[in-house]
Design goal:
CATH superfamily of one domain: HUPs
Mean pLDDT: 94
Radius of gyration: 31 Å
Number of helices: 19
Helix content: 40-55%
Structural class: mainly alpha
CATH class of one domain: Alpha Beta
Shape: elongated
Strand order of the largest sheet: 1-2-3
CATH architecture of one domain: 3-Layer(aba) Sandwich
Low-confidence stretches: none
Largest sheet: 3 strands, parallel
Amino acid sequence: MTQDVVTRFAPSPTGFLHIGGARTALFNWLYARGRGGKFLLRIEDTDRARSTQEATDAILKGLAWLGLDHDGDVVSQAAGAERHAEVARAMLEAGHAYKCFSTQEEIEAFREEAKAAGRSTNFRSPWRDAAPETHPDAPHVIRLKAPLEGETVIEDAVQGDVTIRNDQLDDMVLLRSDGTPVYMLAVVVDDHDMGVTHVIRGDDHLNNAARQMQIYRAMGWPVPVHAHIPLIHGPDGKKLSKRHGAVGLEEYQVMGYPATGMRNYLARLGWSHGDDEFFTDAQALEWFDITGIGKSPARLDFKKLDNISGQHIAAAKDAALLQEIEAFLAAAGRNPLSADQSDGLLRAMYCLKDRAKTLPELLEKAHFVLADNPIEPDEKAQKALDPVSRGILSELTPQLQNASWTRDELEAAATRLAETHGIKFGKMAGPLRAALAGRTVTPSVFDMMLVLGREETIARLERAARGEG
């Protein structure tokens, strides 16, 4: 019987949810959900000085926006401190750990001497094999008794076998002198107790894995499958930082990328399925596997993100897109849509979706149906409404009064009028856009007429013809 897949995402709540962390969460979610397994969430809040509730809330909000639901309650690592200490004491009892009474000054002196002699500065405690009866009644830490010889092999599903000589590993501290457990111990105990089968995380944790495996072996626990994924770099190939642009996930929502597009782009960032760039959630769940993750760092590419985002906007169902827009407006601190605006946006969605790369672009195209009446033309639109153009618009309105309100009929009426004036329809398009939307870049004038309806279209054209717009 095969074991159910259990993955976890375990961020530290010391700041915003980094885009790299969001991708790690997505990979874990896809791997578990695609196999009918569990995706767990653990907040690694053992650093009490730097952990904040605001950061935890931001992480939960980011995951919710990205659509990554987790199973069970959110686990607080700090809440398990007594369980972590219990495991350290069990290792001490079994001889896999020891009490170390060395002071900070003694440890520093050892390292200085080792450095001067060109030896490894990994601390070798004189208390490692000391008999209990020689122990003083003094503050002490509990250290792992790491193997001194041989090798530790991390069988990594992304990086391949990674071999580390055991003489490169130190006897790491498990419990501090005040009895509190360290992060390295807490991670292993939590992963074991939560039944995690696959640890998918950034490759900055690769060195930690060798040390953490010593704890698994000392406790006789099964070692989960490890998959250390390369970090995300900026377009210049350097580690992603604020100079490259947005690094926090919430910034991408505020910039107006839809969650579906963001999921697609992040999944494709460092993982591939043939040449597929655009794919649905269902396809990602079916296709995603650790074997498709590359060994080299992925590069953030805003052009690709824009392209994929635009494809998802075009493919989205209108009602789902309206929800995305409402969430975007809230995240960006912009005014919510009124009921009339929502209705108008839904009517217009068919002619807005195709070329918008982001939600703000879509909303800009939707200005004609969202703006308050009367429409105020911007500077470019104002120039398009010269006296000659206004005269032509005043001639068009009576012809639209009795036209059947279909695209073919509207096009025919406009084309006839253009021919009467010896011009091509293209010359009329600018003034029509200006009159209907107050902008020069809009959807097709006929789409706008169909969305606005006869009464509103004619009212706007008449206002523009009178020079009131």
